[in-house]
Give the backbone structure.
Amino acid sequence: MKVYVDGQAGTTGLKIIDRLEQRTDVTLLKIADEDRHDPVRRAEMMAESDVTFLCLPDDAAREAVTLADEETKLIDASTAHRTDPAWAYGFPELSEEFRQKIASSSRVAVPGCYASGFLSLLYPMVKHALLPADFPVFAYATSGYSGAGKNAIAVYEGNDKPEEYSSPRQYALSQQHKHLPEMQLFSGLTYPPMFNPIVCDYYSGMVVSVPVQTRMLDRRITLRQVNETLQAHYEGAKLVTVNPLMPPEEQKGFFLASNTLSGQNKLEIFTFGNDEQMLLCARLDNLGKGASGAAVQCLNIMMGIEETTGLL
């Protein structure tokens, strides 16, 4: 299998290469640095490859699709095609339908990191009727700075880092974060959720949290019921795990760190709180299951091999 990464110098592209270069079933095609922005040379690399990863800004990813011939399979790790119905959505654990579409498609869009955490929680909640589709959902998330782009990474890691960068910083305050369309579409929500992302001064890893005030529901649900539903939904999943319900006395002294899964390709789900006030949390690495790890998982499924190859 010949694989080309269009955008090999970016954070996601570099991580994909890291995950693939040790494999014997994949041959990585590398473009010369001086040709990385040459559309003719890039088109030639795509034509030579069996699968091309697009690790580019959104507009550049859309333009890159026009360079590929119909025989080349594309895995897009940008935002550009996530809600395009012509593209399979690359989150196979959500349902067998998602998995089968990834396996049979020549165009796959990798979920966003925040969206992966959010959907891991909300898709089963809506699917199994624990939350109505029109429920007013709010989510917040803490994330390392590695997902903020090369310029922001340079500031965080520079010698003259502004003092504000040492503090957690809220952003996308206008409620127009680019992950919101896929968060609404694939969760089945009638309205966009409110979303409060927070970037922090550590490299990678994130926790996406969704509070649920059950008094706003028309029917009673329990925290145990939610946990058991999530456990059943992800039964057999190899990269998504649902932690058992934690006793109240254990919750009191528990701290949920956001960087625990840094460098890994897994996603963990937690259910905290009580029957009146629930806190659903998903922890993952924004560069792993939230980006490059998810992209490689999709490649494995498209190849028809064990989906965790090179990821565990």
Remarks:
- The CA atoms of residues 39 and 63 lie 9 Å apart.
- The domain at 2-111+290-303 is CATH 3.40.50.720 (Rossmann fold).
